[in-house]
Amino acid sequence: MSVVIENVGKTFIDSKKNKVMALKNINFTIEEEEFVVLVGPSGCGKSTLLNIVGGLLSPTSGSVYFEGIEENPNLGIVFQEIALFPWRTVFENVVYGLQEKGASKKEQQEIGNHYIDMVGLSDFKNAYPKQLSGGMKQRAGIARALAVEPDLLLMDEPFSALDAQTRTLMQEELLTIWNRTRLSTLYVTHNIEEAVYLADRVIVLSRHPGQIKQIINIDLPKTGRNDEKYRLQSSKYADEIWQLIRHDAEEALKE
Amino acid sequence: MEKQKQVITNRVAFLDKKVPFYTSFLGIAGILILWEIISRIGIVSPLFLPAPSNIIITGWEMLVSGEIYGNLTASLYRIVLGYAIGATFGILIGLILGFFKVADAIGTPIVYAIYPIPKIALLPLFILWLGIGELSKVTIIALGVFFPVVINTFSGVKSVDPMLIKAAVTFGSNRINVIRKVILPGSLPMIFAGLKLAAGTSLLLLVSAEMIAAQEGIGSMVLHYGNLMITSKLMVGVLILSMLGLIFNRGLRWLEYKLIPWKE
Ligand SMILES: Nc1ncnc2c1ncn2[C@@H]1O[C@H](COP(=O)(O)OP(=O)(O)O)[C@@H](O)[C@H]1O
Ligand SMILES: [Mg+2]
């Protein structure tokens, strides 16, 4: 199975009736068990692209399709805004997708508990979102997306609202989880170190319009990436990406 | 030489100052005692202001004689029925207006056009249409309840975070389940705000309608004793109304707490 993003373009009409070309000519493929990271300065169209792939926004041109799959593809999205249902407990949030698919109570219990355990929230199963810290909320959001055992996992800057220490821990946890599930993943971030740490492949976007500037393969093992021996290589990748983005990021500052 | 010491004290301590819980009772008790004294020493004639003790004794007598029971059940019947009908339709129509764009375009201007009319002004019209019996009074209460509820429900639906709808759709919800599992719980806090607002309105309309056109009911009882200048019995009616309002409000708050445990 693979996910093909073909000639995708998106033009918004803003409040002053001006056309804003957010995305132009986006072409790439997410392979089976591949972790693809979209990176670019803010406003370059990352969320727009992720929403199009997630079926929450129509592209102006081009299309997105799954190849080599029989039924309707199953998607799991982790939102930047987290978007947990405030009236559902952690457990009820996590099994939401299973309920909608008509899974039995027993299945819901088993699968729900499995993923709640995986993200380390067993003690907070019956808590409401308002009782959780930011990091815990996002873990619940991840468990909810994993619980539907998606064909494609989409994540939009899931850790950007967290403090730096929590973020580092969550990145490590995410890699551990990913190594167990090996889901095809499209991950959006503006954080270059995060991109290098997580990705099999980094897609660098430029802005106005959002276009693919370069695609960089990260040739590092998926476990123990923050080991001392990979430091140098990691920072080389980060530097390479920064040089690509720098000009655009400076432009973004001026707006 | 000894060093000078300047200790820093919390200058905003007054912000967290706690008041003992019995303070609120003290206020009420104080007023009642003052009132009793004023009546007892005869500064004000009991015709204008009967003593609290007098009101309570009169109330007891009216309770025993069954006078309160008859009037109270008549009033309760009207307000409970009117409120239930108004609230049910208010929530239903509010959800429909909020969720379906076409219904919104057609219905919302109509709602906002009728909303500002003081509903009691329509009572003569309803009496003309529906007769002077229970129906016209129940209708006027239902109408008065309907508007705050429909408008609050509508804004409640509009205030549901679109991200939550996207999340629900992503995880497989169809339109019906989006309404059931996201829109409805998401607008519940606003719906309750409307229900609480409507509780006051319904009481007001009940009393007004009963004063205009009823033989029985707390409102007509108050008016009746006012005309006869039996102030202590009039005051018993007022007391019952204030307790009714209090119970109504507390009941709704309790229900809100039960249904929305996830709210802060
Ligand atoms: N609904 C919209 N209407 C108009 N313009 C939009 C809309 N959504 C996004 N944009 C514009 O498209 C561009 C890309 O936005 P977005 O995808 O959110 O960027 P990113 O996620 O990379 O920060 C921005 O210039 C933004 O202003
Ligand atoms: Mg974004």
Main beta sheet of chain A: strand number and arrangement?
Answer: 6 strands, mixed
The beta-strand count of chain B equals 0
What is the structural class of chain B? mainly alpha
> How many domains of chain B?
1
Q: Determine the number of helices of chain A (DSSP H or I, runs of at least 4 residues).
A: 8
In short:
The complex is a heterodimer of chains A (255) and B (264). Chain A is of the alpha/beta class.
Give your account of this protein's structure.
The complex is a heterodimer of chains A (255) and B (264). Chain A is α/β, with parallel strands linked by helices. Chain A folds into 2 domains: 30-60 and 152-255, P-loop containing nucleotide triphosphate hydrolases (Rossmann fold, 3-Layer(aba) Sandwich), CATH 3.40.50; 85-150, no CATH class. Chain A has 8 helices and 9 strands. In chain A, helix 7 (192-198) runs antiparallel to helix 8 (231-253). The radius of gyration of chain A is 18 Å and the shape is globular. The termini of chain A are far apart. The model of chain A has no long low-confidence stretch (mean pLDDT 90). With 264 residues, chain B is mainly α. Chain B has a single domain (69-263), classed as MetI-like (MetI-like fold, Orthogonal Bundle), CATH 1.10.3720.10. Chain B is built from 10 helices and no strands. The model of chain B has no long low-confidence stretch (mean pLDDT 91). Chain A binds chain B through residues 54-56, 75-77, 79, 81, 83-88, 96-97, 100-101, 128-130, 144, 148, and chain B through 161, 163-164, 166-173, 177, 181-182, 185-186, 188, 260-264. The structure holds adenosine-5'-diphosphate and magnesium ion. Adenosine-5'-diphosphate is lined by residues 12, 14, 20, 22, 40, 42-48 of chain A.
